[in-house]
Amino acid sequence: MKASVLVFAGSLLLPAASFAQGINDAQIAKIVVTANQVDIDAGKLASSKSTNPEVKKFAQTMVTDHAGVNKQAVDLVTKLGVKPEDNDTAKSLADGGKANLDNLKTLKGKDFDKAYIDHEVAYHQAVLDAVDKTLIPGAKNDQLKALLVKVRPAFVAHLDHAKHIQGTLSK
């Protein structure tokens, strides 16, 4: 599982890095919405499938927080008249999210919890790297850039929380 998490996390950064200079706001919008939806879907599965109360609570937080970010992003792009544009990074995110869900559905108990949390750690780190290296620098619209800057601390908090749970699951 660890290797597939790292491959998935790497897949988030490679396409983003490849067009970092030429990314546009419509592509950023699609990446943001897709990245959040991937975590919402995994969180819904984990909140229903995990038997660990701490993992279930974290998963529900992921659903709530990422749905909130998606609402803000969709409201903003609607206001700006920007139609999210599909791109390689968004497709990679969606494919990786599906692969993660397919893997998680085969697991139970502690194996499920560990795989879910390990993925959350890798995923949030990869998303933060993309936000810092590609999305914020690539955003042309000041309101879009401000939204990315505003939600960044939540991703850091999610990463820290996931790392904390990861440490407790290792014991």
Describe this structure as you would to a colleague.
The structure is a single chain. This protein is mainly alpha-helical and 171 residues long. It has one domain: Up-down Bundle (Ferritin), CATH 1.20.1260. It contains 6 helices and no strands. The protein has helices at residues 2-18, 25-49, 53-80, 88-104, 109-138, 142-169. α1 packs antiparallel against α4 (88-104). The longest helix has 30 residues, at 109-138. The two termini are 18 Å apart.
Q: Outline, from the CA principal axes? A: elongated
The CATH architecture term is Up-down Bundle
The DSSP helix count reads 6
CATH homologous superfamily label: Ferritin, core subunit, four-helix bundle
| CATH topology assignment | Ferritin
Helix content, binned percent: over 70%
Largest sheet: none
Distance between the termini: 18 Å
The Cα radius of gyration reads 15 Å
Low-confidence spans: pLDDT under 50, at least 5 residues?
Answer: 1-20
Structural class computed from helices and strand pairing: mainly alpha
What is the average of the pLDDT values? 89
According to DSSP, the number of beta strands is 0
Give the CATH level 1 class: Mainly Alpha
- Strand-and-helix sequence, N→C? HHHHHH
How much of the residues is beta strand, in percent? under 5%
